[in-house]
Every structure is written in structure tokens, then in C-alpha cells.
Amino acid sequence: MIAPTADVDEKAVIGAGTRIWHLAQVREDAVLGRDCTVGRGAYIGPGVVLGDNCKLQNHALVYEPARLGDGVFIGPAAVLTNDEYPRAVTPDGRLKTGDDWTAVGVTVGEGAAIGARAVCVAPVTVGRWVLVAAGAVVTTDVPDFALVVGVPARRIGWVGRAGRPLVAEGGNTWVCPETGSVYREREGVLSETL
After folding, report:
1. Alpha-carbon gap, residue 103 to 141, rounded angstroms
2. From CA 119, how far away is CA 68, in angstroms rounded?
3. Which long-range contacts (CB under 8 A, 24 or more apart) does 124-129 make?
4. pLDDT digits (tens, 9 = 90+) for 56-68
5. What is the mean pLDDT of residues 124-133?
6. What pLDDT, in 10s, does the model give residues 74-96?
7. Would 116 disulfide with which of 31, 108, 134, 174, CB 3.0-4.6 Å?
């Protein structure tokens, strides 16, 4: 389903079951997986790749060359940037063109969620199942399952696949209060137990 007021370039690849709402723009060579939702006024830049089951809320801005894994959530008005040294003009005052800079991207791992009005400043990698709090500004890589808040974003805990903060069970063991899943922490890295 593509709303009549959406602007989807003919060179974009849209997966089966994906819904693109009013005033959204999907640029050339973007690839959207199956069963994604692109909210009102969202922007997806040229060549951006979304996995299956992604959800971009209203007015989310995802600039190229971002890569989003399966099941990623981008909250309302969140921004994934692409310019490390933004300027409108060159040092001599000439208006910059695409040849005057190199786009760098944000990579978001499977199942991660970026909260409302959060900003991810490229180039960063946001790990799998991460939860970035609303309004946070991510300027460094975020490990899998981290809960990050603030400006600049810092880890204040761990979350599981359900997005709920994990509860410490002693030693290096963490448990999800919703699912009962168990996680182990080792040298600042959290992993699921099988």
C-alpha cells in the first residue's frame, strides 16, 4: 500500500506487504524489506536499506547510506545523519555539491529501537536489540542489548528482546522480567544464553 501523496521513486525496491503513508518520500535505489511501515512525512534517502518488518514512525529521517536490520523501530522525528562535518559551503564560500563530501552512514542492528526525536550521528553502529531513549544523541557505537539515554548517549543498563530493562540476578547474569530469558555479561558485552 502506497498512499497517493507519498513520493516513491520508481528505482526504489519495495517489499511485499510494505505500507508507505501520506507525504513520505522514498528515494532512488532505496530497498525496503517485506512488511515494513513508513509513517507520514518520513524520509528514506537514496540507497538506504531496510530489513523486513521495520517501522519508521511519522517524520523519521533516514539518510543514506544507512543500513537497518530486520525488525528495527525508528521513532517519531528521529534522525539518522550522514555527514560527519556538515557545512553548506566549501571553505572558499562556494555552495557544496554532492562531490564535496562523502556520506557516512548509521547501521542499526536487528530488533533495535531508536526513540522519538533521538539522533544517531554517523558514522555509528547501534547494536542488535538496543533501546535508544527518546531525545538521546548517539555519537559512539552502542553494544547489543544496551539501554542508552542522554546527550551524549551513555549506557545505563541492559534490555532484552522485549525492550524491558533486565534485572541483575547476581554475578554476570541478567534476566528479562517479561520473558524470563537469561543473559550473561562478559567484559561489557551482553549475550543471550541458549
Report:
1. 18
2. 15
3. 128/69, 129/159, 129/160, 129/161
4. 999 999 999 999 9
5. 98
6. 999 999 999 998 999 999 999 99
7. 134
Residue 2 located in a structural domain: no
Q: How far apart are CA 110 and CA 164, in angstroms?
A: 16
194 pLDDT exceeds 80? no
> Which domain covers residue 150, as residue numbers?
7-159
Task: Please state whether 10 falls in left (phi above 0), alpha (psi between -120 and 50) or beta.
Answer: alpha
Q: Clarify whether residues 29 and 99 are in a common domain.
A: yes
- Whether pLDDT at 152 is above 90: yes
First to last CA, the chain: 38
Transcribe 136-183 into DSSP letters: -EE-S-B-TTEEEETTTTEEEEEB-TTSPBPEE-STTEEE-TTT--EE
Query: Is residue 86 located within the same domain as residue 23?
Result: yes
